[in-house]
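step 4 of 6: structure.
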Amino acid sequence: MTQTTTPAPPAIAGDRALAIAQADAATAYRDLSSYRVHLSLELDGWHIDYELKDPRMKGGGPHYVIDASAGQIVSKRYEQ
Amino acid sequence: MRAPTIAELLADTIVQRALDIAWSDSLVTDPSRRHEEGGWIYMEVASGTIAVRRSAAGAQASLDLSAPPVVTGSVVVGTFHTHPNPSAEGWNPGPSTADTLSAIILGVPCLIRADDGTYSTGPDSRRGGLTGGPGYPP
């Protein structure tokens, strides 16, 4: 017989992680209307990536990893 | 006649001057108004003469170079733009993933002026050479 365990849900929900990223991104980038946001829960936390909607555009957006238990920004990268 | 390589574009005085002016126009010392500037690099097919055209100003961290104006007898052989946000404040000065992806899609080299130098990404020269008509290569 095999025993399986279901991972506990993260203490920080996705919408909370997104709000944390959005607050930082809005300060750094001023206008985020040209970006599409990708959110995924990985082993090291929430990954939140802002990508330009039009793939022919030059530029870049912010990229975050947010601790899923404490809600701190573990890493961030500002692309341009 | 063949399409210029990234090294040849970076060595061209017209391109260097265009990067300098775009950088100056980017208002890099003004945190509330700094923005991307850039444009297109053309080669006249018959003579090999290099020329540049500027695009409309971009946003703080993006620029639309998807629709180059048609220049009779010339084709687009590269794009150029600035990265005006300071690396000292954590901004990546080099090509973004989108810079590289768009250069591959558009089919021409992408030159970038940042606060720590000049970068390039994308193909080494115009896809398919000087054929394919005005604008970007097919």
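step 5 of 6: annotate
 - DSSP finds three helices and six strands in chain B.
 - Residues 39 and 65 of chain B are 7 Å apart (CA to CA).
step 6 of 6: archive
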